[in-house]
From TrEMBL:
It comes from Marinobacter iranensis. It holds the Pfam family GGDEF. This is diguanylate cyclase. Its EC number is 2.7.7.65. Residues 333-356 are annotated as: Disordered.
Length: 356
């Protein structure tokens, strides 16, 4: 896959969009820095600054490697970390030997650090950078210049740090908004394929078997009709609260439709997932919801089968949910296994909670 494709085309999920955005930043910074710095190699070489010219060659080689790895291998060469380190070293050394001509490069170098390193790492690096530049300018330039350089470079760092921090927060907030359902806070469908595929890989590679539960409220329409939509919304909120209280931290809770939820239980076999489903249905029917609303739910349970895709896995669970509804609701049904699959050791019929 082209690493930059996620933002050139429309990304298929929010996590990929953020990844694509970060890759674009790394790619463009390295590309344009290469264009700007390559001619300087000749200039410094001709001026006899051999060490600086060699450092700049190293900088350019790193930029070429990062661009090539991102384009053709979809990976970060050295995590993109060599750029800020070399940029800072070159800027400090160039200021020592070239005076103001070298100093000007410290401003883009300081800004680039914030776009390439994690915020905390970038802040610490730039504090060290500004301190080094202050020492160099104190030794190299008149006192008035020393103050100007220290404050202007410090202020540049502060502005870019605030910008990078706010962009990071905005990214996190947009990802949260794009991946969760605003009413209940559960995950929405955007994460569904990724998470189910992750469980399938765990099964294929490590024989770690996961299960999923589909859960759908019974006759929810009548709640809306009788108590109104707001009450219906509060039931859904309380339901997601009750469900998440019973789950482990590694479990994932999705709202995949109006009153339909999906729970992914990593490393949980069918038998244990059946038990969880029964307990969830009990927790729904045992106590009334807001305004004394009494409601039940139907559920289906499916362990991931060997070699099956996420849509086949989900489809098996869907069929079992239809069956739970058809059998009179308020019960959980185990999904039929794939045709080519052996039955579980403790297969005991399909209806699990007819006695609820
Ligand atoms: N309050 C509220 N209602 C919703 C929301 N999303 C979907 N619904 C309602 O949920 C109801 C679902 O109705 P049906 O699909 O007939 O399902 P049901 O009444 O639960 O019947 P069964 O599933 O067959 O037991 C519809 O009336 C939708 O308007 C929501 O976010 N809030």
């Amino acid at each position: 896959m082209n690493p930059l494709a996620t933002t050139n085309n429309l990304a298929t999920n929010p996590t990929l969009a953020v990844l694509g955005f970060k890759r674009q930043i790394v790619y463009h910074l390295h590309f344009w820095a290469l264009v700007a710095v390559a001619p300087l190699v000749m200039v410094q070489w001709q001026q006899g600054n051999i060490l600086l010219a060699l450092l700049l060659i190293l900088f350019c080689l790193n930029a070429v490697a990062v661009i090539a790895f991102l384009r053709f291998r979809s990976i970060y060469f050295l995590q993109g970390r060599l750029f800020p380190i070399l940029a800072v070293i070159c800027a400090v050394y160039s200021t020592v030997i070239n005076g103001h001509a070298g100093l000007y490069w410290s401003y883009p170098a300081a800004a680039a650090v914030f776009f390439l390193l994690p915020l905390r790492e970038a802040t610490v690096s730039n504090i060290i950078f500004v301190a080094s530049m202050s020492v160099v300018s104190f030794i190299t330039f008149p006192e008035a210049d020393f103050w100007r350089i220290t404050f202007s470079l410090g202020l540049t760092c502060l502005f870019v740090m605030i910008f990078a921090w706010l962009v990071g927060r905005l990214q996190a907030e947009l990802t949260r908004l794009a991946t969760t359902d605003p009413l209940t806070g559960c995950l929405n469908r955007s994460q569904l394929a990724d998470i189910l595929n992750g469980q399938i890989q765990m099964r294929e590679r490590y024989e770690r078997v996961s299960s999923l539960i589909l859960l759908d409220l019974d006759y929810f329409k009548t709640i809306n009709d009788r108590w109104g939509h707001m009450a219906g919304d509060r039931v859904l909120q309380e339901l997601s609260h009750r469900l998440s209280k019973r789950l482990r931290e590694s479990d994932r809770l999705f709202r995949i439709g109006g009153e339909e939820f999906m729970l992914v239980l990593p490393e949980t076999r069918q038998k244990d997932a059946d038990k969880v489903a029964r307990e969830l249905l009990t927790s729904i029917s045992a106590r009334p919801f807001v305004e004394g609303i009494q409601i039940t739910a139907s559920a289906s349970v499916a362990e991931v089968g060997k070699g099956e895709t996420w849509s086949v896995w989900l489809n098996r669970a869907d069929q079992a949910l239809y069956e739970a509804k058809a059998r009179g609701r308020n019960q959980a049904v185990s999904a039929a296994r794939q045709l080519n699959e052996e039955p579980p050791e403790d297969a005991d019929g399909t209806t699990l909670a007819a006695d609820l």
